Amino acid sequence: MDCSEAVEDYCDAWAVGCERIPKNVPSFTDNLDRYFIILEVEKTIPKIHNIDKEDHQGEFVEVESTNSLTFWVSCPRSDKDNLSKEMISSMLTSAGVPLHKQEYMVDKISSQADQIANAECNKGSKILPMFVFISIVACLCMSGETNDDYHDGKGD
User: Fold this and answer.
1) What is the pLDDT of residues 118-154, one digit of tens each?
2) Would 151 be classed as within a structural domain?
3) Nearest 5°: CA angle at 103, between 107 and 94?
4) What share of the chain is helix, strand, coil (3-state, %, to 5)?
5) Cα gap 24→151, rounded to integer Å
6) CA 135, 140, 145 angle in degrees (round to 5)?
7) Has residue 90 been placed in a domain?
8) Can you give the pTM of this predicted structure?
9) Which of 34, 45, 86, 128 is deepest in the core (most CB within 10 A)?
10) Is residue 126 domain-resident?
11) Is 127 exposed, middle or buried (0-12, 13-18, 19+ CB in 10 A)?
């Protein structure tokens, strides 16, 4: 798939329960509150070869890979920008999300991080667990892909 084609990537972020926090929390030298972020990125590829209209049952993509990473990031507990856009972009990049797919994701994650940091129920919490789920349609700029990955079945 060409990088300039419009696709429906997906991003959502939400607070999760404390049971998601690992038992062995790292020790930090500062006394800042922290986000514990679980970032899961699902990479899908289009099913464009050999589609039988009666057999596809609404599935036009298949999951190629899933990558799950965790991050500990300080939270200053301000009204806005508790999780910097640069930090979010760095996390997304380390999880394999290309830069050209990140803009709306960064804004959505930043907004949700602010809501979590300022939620009344989190006022006394030093650790703020957060889950981010992203599903992206693979494009040619993503590593390891060739034009053969998007073979349309013609000529076989």
Assistant:
1) 999 999 999 999 999 999 988 766 654 433 333 333 3
2) no
3) 100
4) 25, 30, 45
5) 46
6) 90
7) yes
8) 0.79
9) 128
10) yes
11) middle
